[in-house]
Write a structure and sequence with these properties.
11% strand, globular, Arc Repressor Mutant, subunit A, single chain
């Protein structure tokens, strides 16, 4: 019974540390992108969509949903907002007109470039301060953590 109490106390301490780290890290990471996004009336999700379109030749709404592991409707809502802001346009596939390829307008290209440059400039300050290897190690650890948590089964979660 004493071991169980010790484990619970350790678990509680670890959970509290996680909450503090999560709050601090998400605030810092949000600050990296908040200003350039707000200046261009974009959400982070919308910027990631613009970035994917900018770096892909033929990309569809479904391609983005699969990559981001979210529903088509979640991406569709973001794309509708980008269409309304005239940042993207759609071109039907000549072989299957139901399939729509996403492209950036001139305005979309400009905004994606401006936001990307602002974020890159800010991120470069982090790299200069902490070093590329420390940033790389932190990102590798975060990816590993994310991958392992995503692999938890319902049985793991029930325990």
């Amino acid at each position: 019974m004493m071991v169980s109490v010790m484990e619970n106390a350790e678990l509680n301490s670890l959970l509290n540390t996680y909450f503090e780290a999560y709050q601090g890290t998400t605030r810092i990471m949000a600050d990296l992108v908040a200003w350039p996004l707000s200046q261009n009336k974009l959400s982070f999700e919308q910027f990631l969509i613009l970035r994917r379109i900018a770096t892909s030749d033929e990309v569809t709404l479904n391609d983005i949903a699969l990559q981001r592991q979210v529903t088509r409707s979640a991406i569709s809502r973001q794309v509708k907002a980008l269409l309304a802001q005239h940042y993207v346009f759609q071109v039907p596939d000549p072989r299957d007109r139901r399939r729509l390829y996403l492209h950036l307008t001139a305005g979309g290209q400009r905004v994606e470039l401006l936001v990307n440059e602002a974020i890159t400039e800010h991120f470069d300050l982090w790299v200069k301060r902490l070093g590329a290897s420390q940033i790389g190690e932190a990102l590798t650890m975060m990816e590993k953590f994310s991958d392992q948590v995503l692999q938890l089964t319902p049985q793991d979660k029930a325990q």
